[in-house]
Amino acid sequence: MKILSTFLLLISLRAEAQIDLQFKKGLEAVSGQIKVTPLDCDPSDPTSAAWCKNLFKSTCEVKKTTNKSEALAEHIQGKTYQNLSVLSTPSAIIKAAETALKMADEMIYSKDFILKKDVLNTFKDTKSMLSDLITKETGISQDKKKTILNKIKKVNLMDGADYVKHLTKYAKQQNSELTKDEARMAALELFMSGCGNSGMESNAFFDGNNMVLCPGLIYSLSDFPLKDKAQALNALSFTIGHEISHSFDATEQPEIYTSMKTCFEKITKNPGVWSKNGSEISADYWGSMVLAQRLKAQNVKGADAVRTIAYATDGFCNPGPVVAHDPHPPGDFRINYILSRGSAMREALQCNPPSSSLKSCTTEGSVPK
Amino acid sequence: MIKYFFNVPTRRHMIKTIYVAIVLLVSVSAFAGVSFQLEHPRHPSGQKDHYIIKCEKLCSLEIQTPESIKGEAAAGILEEKLRELMKLHKNGLLPKDLPSSQTKVLYRIKLDDGVTQFESTLGYPESYQAQEFKKFSKIISLVEEIKRLMKLELLRKK
Predict the structure, then answer these.
(1) Residue B103: which of A35, A185, A275 has the closest Cα?
(2) Do A203 and B43 touch (CB under 8 A)?
(3) Who contacts B90 (Cβ-Cβ below 8 Å, separation ≥6)?
(4) Taking 70 as the threshold, does the pLDDT of residue B68 lie above it?
(5) Up-side HSE of residue A354: CA atoms within 13 Å toward CB?
(6) Percent above pLDDT 90 for chain A
(7) Interface predicted TM-score (ipTM) of this complex, two decimals
(8) Of A2, A61, A78, B88, which has the highest C-beta tally within 10 A?
């Protein structure tokens, strides 16, 4: 009887256990793969700041001071979706979604925070910075450079309304049976998948040749105690650089990252790190190069540079459960092994340059060799 | 001998019959409902939102975003939508999975109705063309409807 009841209990738990099994397996697999230890600072420099030893820890100590972004999301949600019910018609849902999108696109910008033209200028600057960096790279062939520069040139920045308009056209091209309204509904749903139904998710993505910064991602920066507008735009330049770089990341152009791959596999002592996370690592690399250049150009140093990095990497400290097939490496790896190690970034952070105990991985291999 | 021929095989036969009956009963009733998990990674942070539904008579709902909400709802329309999603899978109407190394992931979906389970990884719209795009927009439409229903149910009870 006891055996039977145990058997029954086991069977009844089976279904639930199966649901979580894959995720748990993934957690073990991923957490077993990358182990991050705090950075060792050069012992010859006793004045090294805490962030030279562990930038991840320092950035995670920087907290948001307001909750404006969530309040705006709730406000938009309340104004648009409040009267919808499970029985609402598709046209009512379209109307709510369009109003929400319009509100989000307009309400995130203000002269007290940043303007739309500021974001557009940052995007243009980032593109030109990435083009310069690629042109100056010595480890990339001329042909490859041409291909990459062309890819960078083709990237467009779209806000919510632009993206929906573009997707409506795309949906109609791919499925000629759709009516104009059906294509519009499909486009709005596709936009909501990426940015949430009020557009206020903190997300950015690269689709085709188009880069979309969800209104929520831009506005979430206003919750930090910003020193000035430039600080917000510098933080945003990391995300913009990261997303544009997905057009020539390790999945798209694996040949240019051969030396970087070897370097990361060596410093992490993990041969699987690149095949799993290479695309995100390469995008983070270029994003951090862009950010470092901007910090240098604007003479942002030390603690101010740390704060800007913290704003740029919002969400890296608490990414939630680690799951299988996650292309994003853990936040501590991204900050301590990618963002903090480049020569230009270390200069901005007022830390010692990369050393043999603290190598930086670049497209030309490790620095120092 | 008499004891062996009459009692032992009879008892064995009975135990075997009961065992088979229990196994049949349990395998049918162990998970008569349907469970759904949706994972939405945000970029570049890698933060993940989760939408979880488990329906058996009632549906338990959970949205794990930076702020999590939990609640319950009548199975009716939600379970119907999940079964519609399963039907798409069974009829081969889901778009092809994105390679696991792909970074441009929009959604990862897991669905289990106790008999069939499937997992699907979806990318952003321009990863799909023609017939694949038709399949993609159908599943996105259904997923967005499920998310909307979850939010409406949870906000209504908030």
Answers:
(1) A275
(2) yes
(3) B116
(4) yes
(5) 20
(6) 72
(7) 0.81
(8) B88
DSSP states of A236-267: HHHHHHHHHHGGGSTTT-GGGGHHHHHHHHHH
User: Phi, psi (5° rounding) for residue A279?
Assistant: -65, -45
- Residue among B43, B126, B139 with most chain A CBs within 10 A, to mutate: B43
> Does a cis peptide bond (omega within 30 degrees of 0) precede residue B44?
yes
Which residues 6+ apart lie within 8 Å of A164 measured at CB? A101, A184, A187, A188, A191
Beta bridge partners of A10: none
Residue B68, strand partner residues: B64
A73 CB neighbours in chain B (<8 A) are none
The answer to whether the CB atoms of B103 and A318 lie below 8 A apart is no
Beta-carbon-side half-sphere exposure of residue A347 (alpha carbons within 13 Å): 14
A312, A366 Cβ separation under 8 angstroms: no
* Chain B residues in contact with A16 (beta carbon < 8 A): 31, 35
Amino acid at A202: S
- The pLDDT of residue A89 is 83
Is the pLDDT score of A47 beyond 80? no
Q: How far apart are CA B148 and CA A81, in angstroms?
A: 10
Q: How far apart are CA A163 and CA A314, in angstroms?
A: 24
- Using the predicted structure, report yes or no on whether residue A84 has a pLDDT greater than 90: no
Averaged pLDDT, B120-132: 94
CA dist., res. B121 & res. A163, Å (int): 22
Please report, for residues A110, A116, A215, the alpha-carbon distance to residue A223 in angstroms, rounded to integers and kept in the order given.
Answer: 14, 18, 14
Other CB atoms within 10 Å distance of the CB of residue A287 = 28
Distance from CA of B30 to the nearest CA of A (A): 5
pLDDT for res A69 = 95
Res A226 pLDDT > 50: yes
Which chain B residue shows the shortest CA-CA distance from A20? B37
**H-helix or E-strand containing A180?**
helix A180-195
Residue in A317, A315, A293, A298 with CA at minimum distance from that of residue A229:
A298
CA B6 to chain A, closest CA, distance in angstroms equals 23
- Give the H or E element holding residue A293: helix A273-297
Answer yes or no: do A194 and B27 touch at CB < 8 A. no
Residue A248: which of A228, A269, A278 has the closest Cα? Answer: A278
Burial class of residue A46 (count of CB atoms within 10 Å of its CB; 0-12, 13-18, 19+) = exposed
pTM: 0.83
Name residue B132's amino acid.
E
Q: How far apart are CA B7 and CA B70, in angstroms?
A: 55
For A161, the token pair is 């309304």
Determine the length of chain A. Answer: 369
